[in-house]
Specification:
The chain has helices at 5-13, 38-47, 77-93, 108-114, 146-155, 180-191, 206-210, 213-221, 237-243, 252-262, 312-325, 345-348, 351-361, 379-387, 390-397, 446-455; strands spanning 14-17, 23-26, 29-32, 57-59, 96-97, 123-126, 140-143, 157-160, 164-171, 199-204, 230-233, 275-280, 287-289, 297-299, 340-343, 371-374, 400-401, 422-425, 440-443. By secondary structure, it is α/β, with parallel strands linked by helices. The protein folds into two domains: 1-285, Aconitase, domain 3, CATH 3.30.499; 287-458, Aconitase, domain 3. The protein binds 3-isopropylmalic acid and iron/sulfur cluster. Iron/sulfur cluster (SF4) binds next to helix 12.
Length: 464
């Protein structure tokens, strides 16, 4: 029977299938950060259990770490406690940890791929919704809750109901100035934030095939924001070229064997999906969000839509979102004053994102009055930025380059947007208060962020 990429991986990892119930799924790689793991380790201690396969878990603190002075003790007591607890748990249970300041430290979804820990055909979980990022490699990767983190640590398996399958195909070629982030934001606004609920999505089509691994990661990262369990892209030559020689990727004969297996993974041509959706690249322009969920987005040349609510509750929700953001129906979004720009996160915090930002700001100056945080997704990305000399371009233009972490993506550290202020952010969530109490977030790709940083307004980057 013809199979999808998802089914091939899922079936190869099914240890037990409970009739009419969940599957017991073997997990190849478990990533662990400081926010969702403490109770899981407490649970193991309470039950007197060890970690079943310690070599399969990798830990990295990312959410709570400061992005300045990482060589000094963390000043905030709550954050310090979270990070130290992860250190202690990793030591007690014999797990690899890339602690703060470690050359491999960074946002867990950035460091997994760059170290070759994320591989095609893998099942990958983490107590974090954006685990979907790793699907870019042709892996079944999804976020889990803390009780499941405990399950994985104890047994290297979890119980999961099998999701339905959806293929989203994007045909054609992207127009100049349009990025993978714009594709993702476009898809979410068309699908809505619940349009893929219950599904595992495979992204396909020319646009996706043409994307670099970094772009595929950006695309898969946002899958969760339309309700999908995860998103994935079939492995191909782009995937193999990215992985070859990465520290933890297979080497020599093992590499050849692995590639031979990975080549068998793509969806069979006559496999059937539960749902098929198609989009055309020609319809996509640089995107921005205007509301308080990632689905409330428009093309940058469009106006804030009229209230589309179909009942009182929906209409009230829409009105509330616009009021929170300070936008009016029918209003143009360009020309809105910007207070902060944040470039970073597991969505757009990789070297290629900073290279693109640097290309756009080179030889120009930051707009006065805008606070701009450039936060690499990992220490390795920071190193790449420095060795490419981008740090000098940033400094000359007046931008501040920070140390790695989740940072203002959700402001669990000190990087908080002040109440009422507007931030153009390359991250993935624009919920009320996400970047600090009362903060207002406009999600966008790197070019829109660069244009805002240079002009101080929401500006179409194609007009710069
Ligand atoms: C803290 C963590 C559980 C959370 C997630 O699951 O996504 C965070 O990473 C986020 O982006 O909101
Ligand atoms: S960068 Fe943001 S979205 Fe990604 S894991 Fe950290 S907090 Fe979550």
């Amino acid at each position: 029977m013809p199979k999808t990429l998802f089914d091939k991986i899922w079936d190869a990892h099914a240890v037990n299938v409970i009739e009419g119930g969940p599957t017991q799924l073997y997990i190849d790689r478990h990533y662990c950060h400081e926010v969702t793991s403490p109770q899981a380790f407490d649970g193991l201690r309470r039950r007197g259990l060890r970690v079943f396969r310690p070599g399969r878990t990798v830990c990295s603190p990312d959410h709570n770490i400061p992005t300045k002075n990482q060589d000094k003790p963390i000043a905030d007591p709550v954050s310090r406690n979270q990070v130290e607890t992860l250190n202690r748990n990793a030591a007690e249970f014999g797990l690899d940890i890339f602690g703060i300041g470690h050359e491999r430290n960074g946002i867990i979804h950035v460091i997994g791929p760059e170290n070759g820990l994320t591989l095609p055909g893998y099942t990958i979980v983490c107590g974090d919704s954006h685990t979907s990022t790793h699907g870019a490699f042709g892996a079944v990767a999804f976020g889990i809750g803390t009780s499941e983190v405990e399950m994985v640590l104890a047994s290297q398996c979890i119980l999961q109901p099998k999701p339905k399958s959806m293929r989203i195909t994007v045909d054609g070629h992207l127009r100049p100035g349009v990025t993978a982030k714009d594709v993702a934001l476009y898809i979410i606004s068309r699908m809505t934030t619940s349009g893929a609920t219950g599904y595992f999505v495979e992204y396909a089509g020319e646009v996706v095939r043409d994307m670099s691994m970094e772009e595929r990661m950006t695309l898969c990262n946002l899958s969760i924001e339309m309700g999908a369990r995860g998103g994935m892209v079939a492995p191909d030559e782009t995937t193999f070229a990215y992985l070859k020689g990465r520290d933890f990727a297979p080497k020599d004969d093992k590499w050849d064997e692995a590639v031979a297996y990975w080549r068998t993974l793509p969806t069979d041509y006559d496999a059937v999906f539960d749902a098929e959706v198609r989009f055309d690249a020609a319809d996509i322009e640089p995107r921005v969000t205007f509301g308080t969920n990632p689905g409330m987005g428009i093309g940058i040349s469009e106006v804030v839509p009229r209230n589309p609510g179909e009942n009182d509750a929906e209409r009230a929700g829409y009105t509330r979102a616009l009021r929170y953001m300070g936008f009016e129906e029918g209003e143009k979004i360009t020309g809105t004053r910007v207070d902060y720009v944040f470039v970073g996160s597991c969505t757009n915090g990789r070297f290629e994102d900073f290279r693109l930002f640097a290309e756009m700001v080179k030889g120009r100056k930051k707009a006065p009055g805008v606070i701009v945080w450039l936060v690499p997704g990992s220490r390795r990305v920071l190193g790449q930025i420095r060795s490419a000399g981008l740090d000098r371009i940033f400094a000359e233009a007046g931008f501040e380059l920070r140390e790695p972490g989740c940072s203002a993506c959700l402001a669990m550290n000190d990087d908080k947007v002040a109440p009422g202020r507007l931030c153009v952010s390359t991250s993935n969530r624009n919920f009320e208060g996400r970047q600090g109490p009362g903060s207002r977030t406009v999600l966008a790709g790197v070019p829109v962020a660069a244009a805002a940083a240079l002009t101080g307004y929401i500006t179409d980057p194609r007009t710069l």
